[in-house]
Every structure is written in C-alpha cells, then in structure tokens.
Model the fold of this input.
Amino acid sequence: MNWRNGVIGCAAFLLAACGTEQDEETTVAAGAAGQPETGQVEIWRFGLEEIQGSVQYEYARRFADLVAQKTEGEVEVRLFPYGQLGGLTDIYDQAQSGAIELAFGSGFLGGTVPESQLFSLNFVLTDDEELNARILNDEDFRKHSDLIGAFTERDLYPLAIVPEGWQVWSANREIRTPEDFRGLAIRTMDNRLLRETYAAYGADPTTMEYGELYSGLQLGQLDGNIQPVFAHQEMDFYQVQSHLIFANQAQFIATFMANNDWYENLSGDRQDMLEEIVQELVPYIHDVQTRLNAERLETITENSDIQLVYLTAEEREAFRELSLPVRDVFVEMVGSRGETLLEVLLEKVEEAQQERGQQADTAEDEPQAADAA
Done:
C-alpha cells in the first residue's frame, strides 16, 4: 500500500468511527435483531457516489437491512453518501485499498477499471429497462471470468450491476439530430468512451466533477448534461437548463463492488449470503428506480417550464449509426477481454430479444387457440 492509500485509509476509518454522530441517517444499524450476545458487531463501510434519496442510496439502505436480518445483527453496514469520503475517485481508491469494504462505481470508474466503460456504450442494450437489468445480472455475463478479472486485477470484486434509469440529455436548446449537438459543450464523466461517443454526435464533451456541475451549467461553462432523471431533479440541474431530451441511448449503470481481499477472506456462508442478497435486489431496485425517476420527472415538470423532447425511432437511429464505430474504440482501448465482454453482452441482448419476441407471438396466438376450441 502506498502512502496515499494509507492516508485515505486513516481518513476513512476516522470518518467511520464518528459516522453515526455526524448523520444518523447515513448509518443503517443492525436492525431489529439488535447486537449479538457477544456484543461484537462487524462493520462494513459502503461508499456511495450519490446523495441520500438517490437510487444508490435506496439500494444500499435495503442491502444494509438485508445484511442485518440475515446475520441476525452480527454485521452493521454504514453508508457514506457522496461527499463524505471525498470525490468519486477517492471512493474507488478507498475501496481498492480496503479502507472501505463496499462501494458503487459508474462512469468515472472507467479510469480505474477500463473494461467498465462497456456500460457507457450507447445503443447496446434493449429498450426494456427491466429486461436490461436481468441481462446485466445474468450469471453468464455478471460472473464471466473476463469481467471478474477486470475488477480483481484492480483489487476490486464486482457483486452486482445496477441500472439506474435512462441517461437523459439536458440542454438550453432542443436536440433531435446530430446537427443540433454541433458545438454544444456537454459534461461527460472522465470516461474516454463517453467523450468519443459525444464527439461522434458532434458535441464538445467536457469533463467536470459531479459536485461542480450545477455551477458549471449556471455559469455557462457547460451547455448540456447527461444524467438519469432523478439526478437532474435531486441536484437541481433542471433549474439551469431549458430542455430534457429522451433518446433512450443508454442507461446509467453502476457496479456494486467490494474490496477484493476483503471479499476473498469472507467465509463461504458470507459470500453465499451476498449472492443471495444481490439477486434479490435486482427486481427491487428496478422498481425503485422506475418509481423514483417517474416521481422526479413529475416534480421537474411541476416546478419548471422545462420542455420534454422524446426522440422518434428514426431520430434515434441517426445517433445509433454514429455510435457504432465507438465500439471499435472500446475494443482498441481495453483489448481482447473487452471485446469478449462486448460480444457476450450483445449475445445476451439478442437472446433476450428473441425470447421476448417468441413470448409475444405466443400471447397473440393464445386467444385464437381459445376461439378455435
């Protein structure tokens, strides 16, 4: 461990020690089960990229509840929403060093785990969010050796993949074509794939830390933004933009991950428990993100004059065509492992779409069969 990680580790442990005093809502205690008879409670620290009320926070809170229940109070999960442990890369550093046991990583994680930029590619998944959640957490993909290896080589272990809703563009003008993007300074995470994608669309991609984004938009340093609806609302980004544009080009996807050494040293029972919990949380968090994004969009429209723009299939196709060469950039960046993961994901998407089509055909045939009977 280098001196930087050592300092980070000390800071994180100090923060964890006083976490409940600073903000009771950021700590989920052992729950109704209470502390075990020995009085020894194991602490798991969970760093979030988002604030309270977000999709990540709701996931983490439910995760903490389930851990408390299943360990009968032997484990307490402490949550550290965005800002308590520093910036996004600080969270990843602390998860890598073992200063915290658990963390979320999304677009910015591409600087730490380049293969994770796969989740930033546009027009790869289906237009069905629930189906996408199942595809991403299918064992053939989530537990693929190349995905596991991409994280473990960086001292991390991927536990689950969490879609948080469609990435929605905001701007101070209507965007329906790539020409509309020309010259628009749009904020992207520190992620080459995103920069390549929006450059292909004709925009001027600009990296900025999440906590600085509102002022960047307000001061005109940026012209546009890319966020799920709930983030546009909870961080008030919509107040300094005139249009929200829905292209359904990609979902905002976070990886729930653990420090690899910590995970490997867990007992088999603890690892099995984690697997059981993350599988249980797939449908749960899909319902949560769907509800939160719908509620936040209603709040946005009720409290502003912002215009909502929904791209047609033909308009989306123009952007999809421009996004395809970026897949080659991804493979060039990360090599054969990334190429394999992209192929596996595309195969899972195709299989899921074929299955959905067969189910639709069966559903159409059933009333005819009933009539014939």
In short: The first helix runs from residue 3 to 17. Residues 1-25, 27-37 have pLDDT under 50 and may be disordered. The CA atoms of residues 187 and 213 lie 8 Å apart. DSSP finds 14 helices and twelve strands in the chain.
